[in-house]
Amino acid sequence: MGFSAIRRADRRAAGRGIARDHPRYKWVVLTNTTVGMSMATINGSIVLISLPAIFRGINLNPLDPANVSYLLWMLTGFLLVSGMLVVTFGRLGDIMGRVRIYNLGFLVFAFASVALSLVPWQGGAGALWLIGWRAVEAVGAAMLLANATAILTDSFPVRQRGMALGVNQIAVISGSFLGLIIGGVVSQWHWRAVFWVTVPVGVLGAIWAYTSLHEIGERHKGRIDIPGNISFALGLGLILAGVTYGVQPYGGNPMGWTNPWVLSALIGGLALLAAFVAIELRVLDPMFDLTLFRIRAFTFGNLAGLMAAVSRGGMQLVLIIWLQGIWLPAHGYSFDSAPLWASVFLLPLTVGFLVAGPVSGWLSDRFGGRPFAVAGAVISVLAFIGLTLVPVDFPYPEFALLIFFNGVGAGMFSSPNATVIMNSVPAARRGVASGMRMTNYTAGSALSIGVFFSLLVIGLAGRLPASLSAGLSGQGVPSTLANQLGSAPPVGTLFSAFLGINPLGTLLEPSGVLHQLPSVNVDALLGIDLFPSLLSRPFQDGLTLVFIIGACMMTIAATASWLTGHRSSTSSATSGERLGEEPRDYHLIEGDPTADGPATTASDAGPPSGDPAANRQQGL
After folding, report:
1. What's its membrane topology (predicted)?
2. Dihedrals φ, ψ of 24, to 5°?
């Protein structure tokens, strides 16, 4: 674009933001989508570390068995709803316009954030208010997450796309880390401040998006796949709900995997997803374009992304439990201040990601995404293995170094992975491809809570009963009562550690034994030292199991990243994009981008035919 063209673009942009053909427009897109993506993912994790303050604020006892469901839905509801809807909104973006759906997402998100900050009730009613509006907020987040990457891909030429997607992926993943830090800080001031954080960002971001973003991507005419949408949302929702409730005790079992309701949800969810696949293979305008899985880079890139999302979400959960429930109290930090200090001590994880993410995105533009995605996954594997060797009462410098390298691995992996996936699909399918990729992220994060909670419970079940029983008896608690409390399901103990709460007072109060013991024993039972010490040895078994599984998942991610193929990061570009021209009308290849021989583009395939199925095969 020459100097005179730039001046004409400047004049056209006057009074309505930068025009779509202005060379600076892509940077406006990058900045706005980065704000939107980070805002959505910050809200996915900010509640994770703020739950103790929120429960105190609405006067809800988290250790009451009747309130466990509230706790679980506050943990997983946001991720569950966004995971169910992100593909739907990606498909709607392809049909109705990606910017239109993205802008609407900003509005929905901002409105829900305001409602969350105005909780009018206490107790269970207040919890239901929060859960309901968090679900609405998740609808807005799904609109943002499903279309931001596609809008960005439409706006940047292929030679800069890895850098742009790298910045965007930093916003996504670092948002989940920053949510922990922000939640730990603001919850010390006021629990409502947890929800105030995103109100101004959401309102200003919505205004900015409506006044500055333009539709430049290809639209794919079609109809909404109602049967596919319903079967997918219900199937995925049932599976995630079944996994969520599977961590609760049932009957005499420490977990609920034999609960008929849990089994019915899991089986029913799988059946609905099988029906969804059958529907998508037959319908003319599918929501979930299964033909994209014929693309090698798309298939293996998404597999790698799913494994990374599950392992990363599980690691965050375990580290919070480890710090809030065991390490910080054992080193003299009060339970009330544990969320704040946990967020501080997790800073190396965020720093590692922020350091590696931009560099890997920039390098992947020049050398391809595969080597950096593989290297990042391998670094994460080594960091997980290192964490298995760290004692529960660890020296902090050693712990900080390991989580720093885990962050480096995540940062090095994320942006090349996104670049490989998005560069492999036709332009008209970028919205649905972005939605499918983000479904991996949100569903993987939601699954990680149930999966890793279950792994920790399995690890605790061996030694925890004997440890609790011996510790309580040592403080004068009658052996019968000590054995009874020690044999209780370990889920309650795990939730207490996660929330940074000493449950011994709550467990012993109904028996009246606290009024019969010497004050020195009562002080020990209610203090900050005894509970973490009783939990630490059994917790080591759970930690080892969790980190081994995390290492295995990242090994799969490394292998899948290697299998994407060495040409996958650039092969989908048109000749115009390779020359660095501003994108106008993309026609990317469909098929295996790593295959030998000349690539077939949509433009080579001829004009659209009257057969919708044939058009889909041509990427039209």
Report:
1. Multi-pass membrane protein
2. -90, -5
